[in-house]
Predict the 3D structure of the following.
Amino acid sequence: MHAPALARALFAALGVAVVVGCAANPFRSAASSGPISLTPPPGVAAPAHTLPQQTVALQPSFNDADPRQLEAGLARSRQETQLMQDEIVVLREQLASTSTQLAQVRSTGMPPGASAQAAAPPAPAGLTPAAMQTAMAQLAVPGAEARLDGTVVRLEVSADRLFEADSANLLPGGAAILTQISTEVERVYPGHFLGIEGHTDTEPLQNASWGSPHQLSAARASAVFDFFTSRTALKQAQLFLVAHGPNHPVVSNATAAGRARNRRVEIVIYPEQAAAAP
């Protein structure tokens, strides 16, 4: 056989072997005859073109609004702004007026529009507690005990030294004590307000003339008032009466000495002076 013919025969044999070997290859995958699924395995995102399309609602723009509604809303806003500005102006005017009135009161002591003739005279200034105590040291009243009580000075006098028992009748020694008290008070505290306070103990009254201890304390305070206004230089305008009865004891009423201490008349000196009589 010639060489060219032999070569062609060998190539033909190799082609048949290759075809047969590929068909019998165990690593060759079998052809799938079913439909192809587009669902991705778990954990793998689906392609974007396979997702359902959603419609996004867009907010309406002012270009779509009714021009008449926009103009009406703008007009309301301008009106509200103007009202607020007007209120601010009124408030500023009220504040300025109040400041002016306050400055006038501070400078003159009178409200706006009041005249000096119509204004009441200022009340006299009272003494300070320190001044009241300093003046108290100048009092010389052997028949009374003086003590400072807040802003007032109290002169305590035993009712047994002023009056008959269970009575509002003054004793001669009581009249002398009241005369000395009025002289000293007018010297140290001239023209000051004076309170006349009557006090009793808790014992039942032996004199049937008085229905209660309050009536007795009121009668004794009235007797002192009458004595001061008729026998001394003290004026009615600076005196007033208070009847306490047994309501304000200074010590316990359990003993005879305590009850005697609680039966008393107190002349209370106030730091203010009474207005001068016209």
